Amino acid sequence: MTYDFQVVIDAAAPHELADWWAETLGWRVEPSDEAFIRRMVDQGQATEADTTTHRGVLVWRAGAAIVHPDSGRRVLFQTVPKAKTVKNRLHLDVRVGDEARAAEVERLVNRGASVLHDGRQGPFSWVTLTDPEGNEFCLT
Question: Least C-beta-crowded within 10 Å: which of 59, 78, 86, 140?
Fold first, then answer.
């Protein structure tokens, strides 16, 4: 038996972080189903406190997702009560290629990423960065 999965990233501001990662990866933010959300509130299955508005759209407060434009793969950003305090035990490797890496590092730093260090193992090299909330990721 095989299983499908999604990656979930804890966030203080999931909608803003989803926007950042969607632009970073060239993915799209999963559209909100405002009619569904409103119906859940109207039926008492959710409350107004479970919702918020992001960029003028009614959304679930607890999280936001981004979706790969072709495969439909999904990354979910969910609200957590505490800020990140230790190194990630899991991180994303974003493959941009050796030729594009320096330009991508510059682009992401200009958008709020921070460079942690350059890495190398044999013929492979990468740059480890953090997103605006401090989550580590590598550009390979």
Answer: 86
